[in-house]
Amino acid sequence: MTTLSPYAAIIFGMVLAAWLGAAVWALASGQRMRREGTQAQGKLDRLAVLMASAPAAPVIIHPDGRLEAADRLAKWLGKPRVPTFASELTDADGGLEPEDAAALAREIASAQRAGKSFALPVRGQGSSRLLLVRGAPAGPGLAESGGVVLWIFDATDSQAEIQDLKSHVDQLRDALEALAGLVEAAPFPMWHRTPDLRLSLVNSAYVRAVDGEDAADVIANGIELVEMAGGVSPQAAAAEAVAQDAPVERMVPATIDGERRTMRVVDVPLGPAGVAGYAVDQHELEQARVEHRRLETAQRDLLDRLSAGVARFGPDRALRFWNQPFISLFALRQDALADAPLFERVLDQMRDARRLPEHRDFPAWRTERRNWFLSPDAQEENWLLQDGTHLRVYAQPLPDGGLLLIFEDRTEQVQLSSARDTLLRVRTATFDNLFESIGVFSADGRLQMWNSRFRTIWGAAEDLLASHPRIDDLMRAVQGQLAKPQQSNLVRELVRAATVERKQRAGHVGFADGRLFEFAAIPLPDGNALFTMLDVTDSRRVEQMLRDRNEALEQADKVKTAFVTNMSYELRTPLTTISGFAEMMSAGYAGALSEAAQGYVDGILQSTARLSMLIDNVLDLTQGEVGTLAIDHMPVDLAMVARASAERLKPEASAKGIDLATSLQGSLGSVQGDARRIGQAIDHLLENAIRYCGKGARILLHGDGTADKARIVVSDNGPGIASGQQKAIFDPAARADQARNGGRAGIGLPLARQLAEAHGGTLTLVSRPGQGTMATIELPRG
């Protein structure tokens, strides 16, 4: 056995230690490499899973055209397997549309030659699938130089979503443009503030309201629509809206277009987008509200003044308004209505006051009336109350859901209607029994009403009249009744004038049987015409007789006048002869006369003078009655004429013991006329007063005048004249009767009146028994 030396043992030990260390290192390295391999395999597996689940399929194209790709590429292309070469992908049968396949081939070639990246959308052949291909040169670790890496994405869903997003974006853009246009076209100011409350957008109305040049100028200068209102600035109001996260409204005054207006300003918070605002002109609205309140007050005042009862209920059926006639009509207490009772309660109160119609089922009746609130149209009813009151009830639903009730007391109208019906019946009976023939024609000329006399006179059949014929047809049917059938045209024209022209016409017509009728067509207020006929046959005969008699009397009067005139002239001749011989005897031509003879001659002279005067008076009176009395027109001094008459008659008055006095004022003046005739009238008045006054009486001749007329008054304190006799003094027939009965028919006063009237004046007589008489002549100055 060989024994190692220590040195060798040390070397061997060192070699063995080195080998053992190497083994340990190798074992540790193997374990580490195994762990790293395991980790790399796990990482590779995870990468493979990640690549399989990636949204894009990787494709490597080597320089020689070989193709490496994921299996899902075949599914996307609609192929059973993945293409082996790039040419299979880009040819006509590669699964892509021909144009897209050609474009992909060009892009791949460009990337291989120039190392250019590209992105290209392609579509599967005959499929709606859209693929997005992104290509780039392959790195050294993937392929040799000239290789290309393709990432193919299935963009079908993404593209659809993109299209939807684009459509939504377009819609939002259109809406934004429309909104911007709406804001710009808004007739009231609108604006937007940024989160820091600065103006960023205003519309044209805002620019006009602040008199700005344009929107940019307003925003740049920060011109506010309302500077301060109630100590609150616009920015503070906007900040309040942001703080409350709710719109803030306020009423502020503003000057718009030089006018002071009331604006309702609203600030609306928009979150991070800032604050929007707008201002609405409330001036006209406020005016409308004031006008509405004024109209409502006027309406209430008007309704309160109506004689009809008025009650208005609100949408909640509570009583909101009533007038005084409503309370009086239904005997209600005002304090019971003050707490706004409901509709049903008001009806109950009306029933308690016994001011509603009687009904067996009052609750059902009340429910039906409550439905008035829901009725689309107005309702109208007539109520007959227990005391006989007739009410017309008008229920008008209001737009706000309320109800307006109007109660009109028609009791008087009903009574009047009943009275009218009675009156119509009485009128019909009277109408049918009148002696006159009466027919009523309407505006179109049709016969509407007639009485039995009308039918009898015209001999018309009842069925003809019942058909209400027109006047033309009626006249054609009855014209045979007329003596002259063509006179039917006259009747027709009169009815037409009364109905169309509204003129009243009259006439007469003769019938074939000799009867004579007067007829008239009279317009009625209702547009109709009344046609009346009256049988005047007998009255016409009497009229003719009277006319003949009157002509005979006129002829006799002419004969009488001629006789009186002739007799007056015939009597003058012997009277003049007698008067002449008497004057000759009184003058002594026949010798001296004894005292007795002289008295006889004086009596003859006085009688002839008086007879001559009476003849002149009779002649003047006769001429005055026939209008042939001659009157001169010369200036007449009335005072001179009156004094002369007084002087002539004063001896006669003195002989009877009568005091004749005169009182002629300077205003009496003169007139144009006949002095002799005026003096003659004064003489007659004085003679009449002297004749009827007794001894001790007093007669006054008074004269005065005005600028227009003169007045002569003869008054006395004699016995006077009874009122019944005063009219007879001036009546010729009464004077004739008085003369035939042996009375004194004096002609002085009638002749004096004729003389005054011949001068255009008047003579009036005022007398009372026991108080004297006053006769007044008034003569015009002209």
Automatic annotation (TrEMBL):
Q: Which reaction does it catalyse?
A: ATP + protein L-histidine = ADP + protein N-phospho-L-histidine
| Pfam families from the UniProt entry | HATPase_c, HisKA, PAS_7
Q: Where do the coiled-coil regions begin and end?
A: 155-182
Q: Which UniProt keywords apply?
A: Coiled coil, Kinase, Membrane, Phosphoprotein, Transferase, Transmembrane, Transmembrane helix, Two-component regulatory system
Q: Histidine kinase domain spans which residues?
A: 566-782
Top-rank taxon of the source lineage equals Bacteria
Output this protein's name. Answer: histidine kinase
